[in-house]
Amino acid sequence: MTLAERRPVLSVRGLSVRFLMPGGRRIAAVTDAHFDVAAGECLALIGESGCGKSVLASALLGLLPANAQAAGEARIGDLDLLAADERTLARTVRGRLIGLIPQSPAAHLTPVRTVRSHLEETVAALTRTRGRAVVRVAAETAAERAAFPMDHLDRHPHELSGGLAQRAATALALVGDAPLLLADEPTTGLDRDLVDHTVDELRRHVDAGDGEGTRRALLMITHDLTAAERIADRVAVMYAGRIVELTDAETFFGAPGPRHPYSRGLLQALPERAFTAIPGMPPELGDLPDGCAFAPRCERASEACATLPPTAAGTACHHPHVREGIRA
Ligand code: SF4
């Protein structure tokens, strides 16, 4: 069975998030996102900082600030995450249906408690493991899976480097064995070897079956394209709050290459490719144009781009590239 034929673990339809600012200003952080993440699939959501990736993640977890309004649907099974109340989100979603590796792990750890204490509490809360000695072993196993060193388990968050805090957060996120793992920049602060180890562990977590095939999926938010290439089955590219391209990873990173000019620009900015930055800056999300938001930076822009491009074959562009080799 192909990934596309599998039952989606997460199904997002028309997800939009608006921030209502003082003076009536509206920030369009996410607009009309559509995608599925199938069982056994790793979907990498990529794009520059501030494009709306992490806001989308917060919407899925019900962690948006009070001045945000979310619309659309985001379903795990029969549950619409956007319509769920706080009690449901706290008791059945966070940790149980969605395991989160947060963007700033140190900020999510309680400063006065050790990593061991965090892990043991999470094991006790999210699994059926009981008994002090057994919980201790389960916590150490969780740490091992994320390559968190045993001799640092009794340290407090302020005694950890950024990389170790990231590994502690990864270990905590894996404990609940949630069907959807949401990893928000999980490789930040890690050296390349640890990046590889971390994404390989996430991949193993998704691939591990329960006898009837895997029921786990990963949505990885990242601007680390090398990590995305190592782990992803499909890639979704976000620009100015919209998903502008959704395609399989082999096509995206391989010789055919992506079709959207922004996606190609992201790849061409890599040192191992052309090492050429995309000119200009992303637009203000509070002042988006009516048409394509990438137009001021796009060498293919035409008058047609003053209107919003339709999405065809996974690409939102009036003048998408034809498939051809783009490696430098
Ligand atoms: S719609 Fe036009 S401006 Fe936007 S990416 Fe495509 S060609 Fe460029």
Give structural notes.
- This protein has 328 residues and is α/β, with parallel strands linked by helices.
- It folds into 2 domains: 3-97 and 179-316, Rossmann fold (3-Layer(aba) Sandwich), CATH 3.40.50; 100-177, no CATH class.
- Helices cover 30% and strands 23% of the residues.
- The protein contains 10 helices and 12 strands.
- The chain has helices spanning 53-61, 86-93, 105-108, 115-126, 132-145, 162-175, 192-207, 225-231, 249-253, 261-268, and strands at 8-20, 26-38, 42-46, 68-76, 79-80, 98-101, 180-184, 217-222, 234-239, 242-248, 311-312, 315-316.
- It has a 6-stranded mixed β-sheet with strand order 6-7-8-3-9-10, with helices on both faces.
- Helix 5 (132-145) crosses helix 6 (162-175).
- The two termini are 35 Å apart.
- The structure holds iron/sulfur cluster.
- Iron/sulfur cluster is lined by residues 261, 292, 294-295, 298, 300-301, 305, 309, 317-319.
- Its main location: membrane.
- Its EC number is 7.2.2.11.
